[in-house]
Amino acid sequence: MTSLAENKPRRTQRLSARNIPSALIYETWAGKPIYYKGYREVLAGKKTISEVMWCSDLQGVLVSLLNIYLGNSINRKQYLLATNEMGYTWR
User: Fold this and answer.
1) Per-residue confidence (pLDDT) for residue 73, from 0 to 100
2) Which of 45, 48, 53, 90 is spaced 20 to 30 Å from 38 by Cα?
3) Dist. CA 15–CA 60, nearest whole Å
4) Structural domain of residue 31, as residue ranges?
5) Phi, psi of 26 (to 5 degrees)
6) Is 16 part of a structural domain of the chain?
7) Number of domains comprising the chain
């Protein structure tokens, strides 16, 4: 009589936090790192770290121009302008 091998689900290789460069960490929340979107492509060698960072040169210029325009258009005693990567939590 032959026996069938059990079909066990394949384990996917989990990425250890020790293997991920700190440059790919966006911020830490509740003691756990939050990585930039696309960090797995960097680890696979498909992208560079600078490609997954969220603020490009063009984005920086656009944010600056928008901030100048809005700063001249709104009541700055009533509103506060904040720019670029604010993060997930408000402290």
Assistant:
1) 92
2) 90
3) 32
4) 21-73
5) -75, -50
6) no
7) 1
Q: What is the pLDDT of residues 7-40, one digit of tens each?
A: 555 555 555 556 788 888 888 888 888 888 888 8
Does 85 fall in a domain? Answer: no
Cβ-proximal residues to 51 (8 Å cutoff; 6+ apart), any chain: 38, 42
Task: In whole angstroms, give the CA distance from residue 8 to residue 10.
Answer: 6
Residue 9 placed within a domain:
no
Lowest-confidence segment of 1-10, 24-33, 66-75 by average pLDDT: 1-10
Residue 79, amino acid: Y
The single-letter code of the amino acid at 89 is: T
Domain assignment present for 88: no
Pair 28, 89: CB distance under 8 Å: no
Looking at every residue in the chain, the average pLDDT score rounds to 76
